[in-house]
């Protein structure tokens, strides 16, 4: 039982064997926030909970403060927003991202025209590593806060990306699980994801650059204040304070919450489409079903702050 900042992890936790199949809590807005219209562009929802297209913004042009603020509100309310028919350059992509802060340089993924751009060229010869539910770069002490992906070339079919609302995943957990995980932390590590492409010397160097990160299992969202699940199948390896078996069992249960379709939106790419998502409010999954066709994309990510727990 939770007592202040103390969580009793000595007693065994009963992990539900079956997911609850009744009515789910699908709360798009934080408590106390009322729906209000957008004045400067049109918002087209793609699901009741998460994901909306933005119509009427040309990203070739610098953003005014008013448009930037309204886009930020749309991002917080919908968690991932999409733009179509945006024939922007890499420089314009970078400039758009910098509206939200300093851009991240990814240590392991291939660069585009700038070190701040990750370029994904996927065909039958490429290794797929995004077809797993994940948040971006949680192996960092300060993971990416937002990510902006521009797909330049799409396959004729397939290659969709899905996003899941991690606040909804938390909202629908059994009360006993919530009580147990609020206040716990987990270890995040890149080694099993990117370490295989490094030799022994390189691995030692990057492990020194990016030592294991310890983040709360449940974070308080920095803008909305909502409790949000913050463990992912790609980088989260252990819950601190639990033995290996209980940690693995609990993590697998928490990972499975992201798979529930009611919490998801699925986006079908077209050439020159853009997705802009909140990495502290979502996980995403890039479907690898289009080989030997080609998909080419470029991504920038905005450096975030250190995640804060709920206790």
Tell me briefly what this model is.
This protein is α+β, with helices and mostly antiparallel strands and 311 residues long. Helices cover 21% and strands 25% of the residues.
Task: Describe this structure as you would to a colleague.
The protein has seven helices and 17 strands. The chain is α+β, with helices and mostly antiparallel strands and 311 residues long. Strands 3-4-5-15-7-17-6 form a seven-stranded mixed sheet. A three-stranded antiparallel sheet has the order 14-8-16. The protein is globular, with a radius of gyration of 19 Å. The chain starts with a strand and ends in an 8-residue tail after the last strand. Residues 42-297 form the TauD/TfdA-like domain.
| Protein structure class | alpha+beta
Count the domains.
Answer: 1
Strand content: 25-35%
- Arithmetic mean of pLDDT: 92
Helices, by number, come to: 7
Shape: globular
CATH superfamily: Clavaminate synthase-like
Strand tally is 17
In CATH, the architecture is: 4-Layer Sandwich
Give the helix level as a range of percent. 10-25%
Distance between the termini: 13 Å
Largest sheet: 7 strands, mixed
Give the neighbour order of strands across the main sheet: 3-4-5-15-7-17-6
Q: How would you spell out the order of helices and strands?
A: EEEEHEHEEEHHEHHEEEEHEEEE
Q: If you consult CATH, what is the topology?
A: Double-stranded beta-helix
> Which stretches are poorly predicted, pLDDT < 50 over at least 5 residues?
1-10
In angstroms, what is the radius of gyration?
19 Å
- The level 1 CATH classification is Alpha Beta
Family: Belongs to the TfdA dioxygenase family.
Organism: Thermoflavimicrobium dichotomicum
Keywords: Dioxygenase, Iron, Metal-binding, Oxidoreductase
InterPro entries: AtsK-like (IPR051323), TauD-like_sf (IPR042098), TauD/TfdA-like (IPR003819)
């Amino acid at each position: 039982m939770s007592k202040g900042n103390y969580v009793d992890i000595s007693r065994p936790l009963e992990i539900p064997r079956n997911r609850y199949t009744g009515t789910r809590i699908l709360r798009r807005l934080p408590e106390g926030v009322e729906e209000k219209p957008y004045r400067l562009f049109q918002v087209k929802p793609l699901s009741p909970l998460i994901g909306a297209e933005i119509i009427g913004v040309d990203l070739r042009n610098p953003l005014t403060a008013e448009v930037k603020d309204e886009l930020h509100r749309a991002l917080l309310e919908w968690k991932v927003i999409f733009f179509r028919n945006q024939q922007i350059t890499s420089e314009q992509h970078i400039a758009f991202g910098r509206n939200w802060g300093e851009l991240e340089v990814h240590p392991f993924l291939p660069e585009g025209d700038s070190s701040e751009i990750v370029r994904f060229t996927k065909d039958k010869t490429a290794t797929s590593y995004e077809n797993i539910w994940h948040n971006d770069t949680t192996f960092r002490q300060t993971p990416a806060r937002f990510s902006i992906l521009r797909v330049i070339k799409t396959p004729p079919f397939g290659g969709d990306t899905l996003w899941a609302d991690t606040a909804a995943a938390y909202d629908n957990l059994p009360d006993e699980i919530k009580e147990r995980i609020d206040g716990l932390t987990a270890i995040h590590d890149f080694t099993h994801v990117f370490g295989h492409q490094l030799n022994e010397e390189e691995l030692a160097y990057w492990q020194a650059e990016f030592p294991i990160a310890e983040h709360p299992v449940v974070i308080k969202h920095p803008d909305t204040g909502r409790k949000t699940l913050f463990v992912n199948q790609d980088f989260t390896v252990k819950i601190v304070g639990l033995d290996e078996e209980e940690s693995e069992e609990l993590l697998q249960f928490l990972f499975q919450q992201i798979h529930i379709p009611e919490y998801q939106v699925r986006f079908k790419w077209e050439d020159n489409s853009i997705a802009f998502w909140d990495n502290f409010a979502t996980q995403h999954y890039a479907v690898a079903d289009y080989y030997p066709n080609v998909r080419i994309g470029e991504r920038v990510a905005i450096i975030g702050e250190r995640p804060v727990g709920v206790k």
